[in-house]
Amino acid sequence: MKTSRTSPLARTTAVLALAITLALAGCGGGQPPEGQAAGTAATGPDGKPLDKKAPAVPVEVARVTKQVISASYSGTASLEAPAEAQVVAKSSGVVLQVLVEEGDQVQAGQVLARIDPDRARLEMERSRATVRKLENNFRRAQELLASKLVSAESVEQIRFDLESAKASYDLAQLELSHTNIVAPISGVVAQRMVKVGNLVALNAPAFRVVDISQLEGVLNVPERELATLRPGMPLRMVVDAVPGQVFVGKVDRISPVVDSGSGTFRVVCAFEGGGTLRPGMFGRIEVVYDERVDALTMPRVALLEDEGEPAVFVVRESKAVRVPVELGYVNGELAEVRSGLVEGDDVVTAGKVAIRDGSEVEVINAASPEASTEAAVAQVAVE
Fold first, then answer.
1. Parallel, antiparallel, or unpaired for β 264-272 and 242-254?
2. How would DSSP label each residue in 212-246?
3. What's the rounded Cα separation, in Å, for the pair 279 and 83?
């Protein structure tokens, strides 16, 4: 009798086949449940396919509140000093002294520098001597005229010569005084152009003095605002050099003439100087021409950007509802709502592009919508 033997490879193959068969039997062989064909969607009790629910869209909201809002016109201008003087040398000569430096505060009539006065002083002394000589001649001529030893015409000629000499003497005194370079106005020395030992010519610039006690900015405003703006209206200004600080001023004067080329008119804005503000700073100026104390407001970023009537998305029962609104003043940060919303409504400020009317939404800042309002306003201010 013969004995059959199974090879090790055959035994291993058989074990693997048995393991695979048991695994398929345990998981159902990957077949769909009974009564459902492969590749078909799940159905409800009525036999209709079950719709998958769309996930809620996360949004941020801001609360509609009552607060102060103003109507204004905004523009940009560079600050200028209305009182500025270019101080020139009224006499030629060598500079002996420079008494002030840039940044020094000076008063009108204060001596800023001195020029060598020797030549001017000698000219004055010569004119004085001529005056004394003619005064003596005129006195003797009057005595001789009383004795009828000279003619009246000779005496008159001496008197005319004396008056001319006195005028020359006064002119020499004036020339001597011009060796002192003085400030014509009170202000700050903005620039010094002379040095000790320099030879300055007549009418050469020596200093620049600027009065910064009041600064002005000129706005070129469109003619449609001519009936709106008036002198004395309050102003607010921010400058790039001093971030975070607001400066107040007023409308000083308004030009009555509209430029035919640009269609604008000049509005001169006045601000108190002497502090942080300096001439040449670039400012963003806002002219406030009306103000409402108890206005219903919302952040401007809540407005939908599509064309047509203004509208916003309001969150009601976790759904976004598109609501048309009537706007009042829009001052760049806030928008006044005249109708369509009530105080306490939550309007969508972030996530508007991802929702439609009736979309399910999830408010991610529901704990503090007031804080979101401040953030939205700050975002508009930065823009």
1. antiparallel
2. -SEEEEEEEEEGGGTTT--TT-EEEEEETTEEEEE
3. 11
**Structure-block tokens of residue 168:** 């020359």
Encoded tokens for 307: 């064309």
- Amino acid, res. 328: G
Can you spell out the DSSP letters for 10-76?
HHHHHHHHHHHHHHHHHTGGGPPPTT--TTPPPB-TTSPBPPPPPPPEEEEEEE-EEEEEEEEEEEE
Say if residue 382's pLDDT is above 90: no
Average the pLDDT over 126-130 and give the result: 93
Segment (H or E) for 172: helix 152-177
DSSP 3-state helix, strand, coil percentages of the chain (rounded to 5)? 25, 40, 35
Are 322 and 49 in contact, with CB atoms under 8 Å apart? no
Beta bridge partners of 69: 292
- pLDDT value at position 48? 52
Q: Which of 181, 176, 177 is nearest to 193 (CA)?
A: 181
The model scores a pTM over 0.85 = no
Q: What is the pLDDT of residues 279-309, one digit of tens each?
A: 889 999 988 887 788 888 888 888 887 767 8
How far apart (Å, rounded) are the C-alpha atoms in residues 120 and 112? 19
Q: How far apart are CA 260 and CA 313, in angstroms?
A: 44
Give the CA angle between residues 42, 46, 50 to the nearest 5°: 35
